[in-house]
Model the fold of this input.
Amino acid sequence: MKDVIDVMELQRERNKRIAPVDYRNLDFNGGFTPARFIFECGMKLQGQPLTLATAAILMHKFFKEVEQSKYDCFLIAASTLYLAGKVKDDPLKIRDIINVAHNTLHRGSSPLEIGDEYWSMRDAIVQAELLIMRVLKFEVSITHPHKYMLHYLRSMEGWLGKEQWGQVPIARTAAAFLQDFHHDPSILDYQPQHVAIACISLALQCYGVRLPLIEDKDDETWYSVFVKDLQKDKHWEIMEKIMDTYNREPETA
Done:
């Protein structure tokens, strides 16, 4: 499937570059830009994957409820990182968030001194956190696809056997697709179990892996063992949404 192979190449190129972009010159891009900012800052802060995923979901949910142009998307992104650290018991120090966010927006700048600009940014992040909580009606607990993906992958390892499983990076590739899908607000439209299945399906197709003892009949697919309510058209729709994410990466010099 050429489209899937092309996406794999895009993913490799993107991971190679992780090229710095000037966020100040980028538009909102349907939520892609602040999500990219979240993951870049979150990785610099050494946040856990679930913490970064939580921040991205909170950001997408917030902008789904408000008029985007009225808010600084990078302030909201920084605030969702701060909030997500609390939600996932992976506390990120607010001073670190301030300095990383500031440096990511202003490449090459020095850490902020404790002064007016620092205290202004700190107060803005705290106030934005309260705003996000109110807009989301304090519903900040999220059921992520990650736990379903882990369960499915463990079962699949048993089907393939450890030797064959170790020959292809299915788990790592599926996890990469899942992380990248968090850049798109459409992740909110699908059940986490279905998202996990779609990411694994893309990984399997990238490497041409077929699961043994699983017949792909018209009325049965490999994932029916795990989920009974995922129709084929919905399954393909989610995979196409994931692939579309790679077309939204900004060009870099």
Notes: Residues 33 and 115 are 29 Å apart (CA to CA). The first helix runs from residue 2 to 17. The two ends are 30 Å apart (CA to CA).
